[in-house]
Amino acid sequence: MVTGPAPTSARTAEPDPVGRPALNGQSSTSAQQVQRERPVLLRERSRWVEADWSELPGWGADRAAELWPALSRSCSKPAPGWTELCARVNRSPAPPDDAQAALWLMQHLKPYRVESHQGESQGLVTGYFEPMLDATRRPLGGFQVPVLAPPPDLNQRRPYFTRQQIESDPQLRTRLRAHELAFLEDPLDLLVLQIQGSGRLRINDSAGRPQWVRMAFAGHNEQPYLSIGKTLIERGELRPGEASWPSIRDWLKRNPQQAKDLLWTNPRYVFFREEPLPDPNLGPRGAQGVPLTPGRSIAVDKASIPYGTPVWLDASEPLSGTPLRRLMMAQDTGSAITGAVRADYFWGWGPEAEAQAGRMKQPLRLWALWPTVGL
Known about the structure:
The chain is an alpha+beta fold. The strands form 3 sheets. It has a 6-stranded mixed beta barrel with strand order 5-15-12-14-13-16. It has a 4-stranded mixed β-sheet with strand order 6-9-10-11, with helices on one face. Strands 7-8 form a two-stranded antiparallel sheet. The protein is globular. It is built from 11 helices and 16 strands. It has a domain at 131-275: CATH 2.40.240.50.
């Protein structure tokens, strides 16, 4: 497991939000007494300012007991500073209801407002999902788009060949045939699979029976990632705010002769490994190395929030003003997930998860919940 370092405590004069300027006739000393110093925990790309539970918007309204399966999975690989508390989680039964779960968290954890080193506490949350796609074992009919395992020379040649080279160079394609895991019907489906980092493929077995397998992230070519949606906006093909997957798919159907040119503007190429799918109710393994939980797992910048940290998320539902305020576990990361207050919300799998993830781009605030033991 790769985690960020334990936070360092810096006792600073961080004003309490309830503090007020000095009133007429009130001494500066009295005004300072209205404020109190708040501990600040420093991390590589963020600072955590101690908060009160009452400052967390919507605290107490979430179904806190639903966090426990995700918390227990994270505690199988505890972050630095979590060993003692995770031992308690692992040897104790889960709280019987939401009230007891919230009480347990309040007794053992302390909330910290996550912000940049410059004091900015508002960031961005997007969404991701696990695609579900039909595939074949061999190129058959319209299924001609290969899903590749990492080639042996991937780590020796950095950066590796670009997407265009991998998909168009005859000699390279011949070399890579030995690493073909499955075949998809649509090149855009491959790109979606690569961007999301994992996916479920329905493939017929040797007896002709359909079975689900998982394609899990196994590496990439070290080339930069460039958004094809952003490219279409820059070319004037789509308006800002319209670059959703349905819009991109529709544009490609209307402009099939330009499909390869568009897809090749993104040189990043992701390779996969095949895994069995023994429990379809569990998500793929995130960067922490534990299965993700729909609606309870987020990807974060590990230099801001270590894997295995519970957080309180304050955002809104996609394309809506309806508050989205809930407990989440930091269990994953992504190349585009950088910054102090940045998260990618795991919606799960299936059409609804895909629709919600594609629409999500909301303002975000985060509070990290950290053990009181050792502070």
